Amino acid sequence: MAMSKRRRSTLSRRAQYVLLLVVALLLAFIADWGELRRSFFDVDTAREMFPGILTVAFKNTLLYTAFGFAIALALGLVLALMKLSSVAPYRWLATIYIEFFRGVPALLVFIAIDTAVPLAFGIAFDTASKAGVALGLAGGAYIAETIRAGIQAVPKGQIEAARSLGMSPFRTTVTVVIPQAFRIVLPPLTNELILLTKDSSLISVVGLTRAEYELTKFGRETLSQNPTLTPILVAGLCYLIITLPLGHLSRHLERRTGGKKIKTPASTEV
Fold it and tell me: How confident is the model over 24-42, as pLDDT tens digits?
């Protein structure tokens, strides 16, 4: 007699639980727990990283990320408005910028800000400015598409109502459209902040003094002095302290806004 679909589903789920339990038990028996402890949970090495990893690396990671996000948000708003402008050259310039910085690796942007810009224009940046400008240039392209999608998601009736009250196009955009658009795009903007937090590690490719270390650089330097993966694990946990609350905030904001999704195309035509 053939089993019902529900019965097959139940048996399949139980079989998967049993398989996972067997694999977990096998790993527990064959693992070298002493070596794992020395490699990942070296208490002495972890103790050496404090308080420097908090007072220097953690603080710098927050500083670089905040500076970069501020630049990216301002730049993204301008680019989004240019992309939606009725003036064709503005749309072309915004599209070229967005496609370029979404298409090149962020690492190249950091290298350009550190090396190419000083050589070409004679402009020297301090470390915080390098991180902020590089993150802002790269992140601004993604945030621009997010804000553009948010602006287009604002109901047309809101714009028509504002114009019928005698508001100018500029005032309608500033007082009606942009505030509602930001309410819509708050969850994806929070996700962009998480990405910028992780991308801040790319500043480690330029020369840094110990006082300028961020989490990745601090972990790598400690790793070079102690042949154990504990420094990388500690640095990773510090990143989680930043990103997990932001992820929770993003989900909370998405529920508050009714879970409304916005679409940002992977590419656009010039």
Answer: 999 888 888 787 788 888 8
